[in-house]
Amino acid sequence: MAQETIKYTNGEITIVWRPSICQHTGICFKGLAPVFDPRRRPWIDPLAASTEAILEQVKKCPSGALSILKKEEENK
Ligand code: SF4
């Protein structure tokens, strides 16, 4: 069965989130609260920080629940 993925794009990059492997560690929302806010729906706002800041934060996700699709990759 395909794993559920939820995507949030800012037009430049797409943040991909896999809820089933998220460990709810809080690393993303402590590191970049304007983008990652679990009290909000949708909880990820890809327009709330620069692409650069989002790329840095996504790298720190310990479970791999967050990943990034670059625009070019998405159109493949
Ligand atoms: S950093 Fe990754 S594992 Fe932790 S809450 Fe955020 S998405 Fe989930």
Description:
The protein is of the alpha+beta class and 76 residues long. The chain has a domain at 26-62. It contains three helices and three strands. It has helices at residues 27-31, 51-59, 71-74; strands at residues 6-9, 13-17, 66-70. A three-stranded antiparallel sheet has the order 1-2-3. β1 and β2 (13-17) form a beta hairpin. Residues 22-28, 61-63, 65-66 line the site of iron/sulfur cluster.
Helices and strands in order, then pairings?
Layout: E1 6-9, E2 13-17, H1 27-31, H2 51-59, E3 66-70, H3 71-74
Antiparallel strand pairs: 1-2, 2-3
Residues 22-28, 61-63, 65-66 line the site of iron/sulfur cluster (SF4).
What oligomeric arrangement do these chains adopt?
single chain
Number of strands: 3
Q: What's the overall average pLDDT, rounded? A: 94
List the secondary-structure elements in sequence, H or E.
EEHHEH
Coarse morphology? globular
Distance between the termini: 22 Å
Which range best describes the helical content: under 10%, 10-25%, 25-40%, 40-55%, 55-70% or over 70%?
10-25%
- Determine the strand fraction and express it as a percent band: 15-25%
Structural class: alpha+beta
Count of alpha and pi helical runs: 3
Rg on CA atoms, Å: 12 Å
Biggest beta sheet attributes: 3 strands, antiparallel
| Ligands | iron/sulfur cluster
Strand order of the largest sheet: 1-2-3
Instruction: Give start-end ranges of low-pLDDT stretches.
Output: none
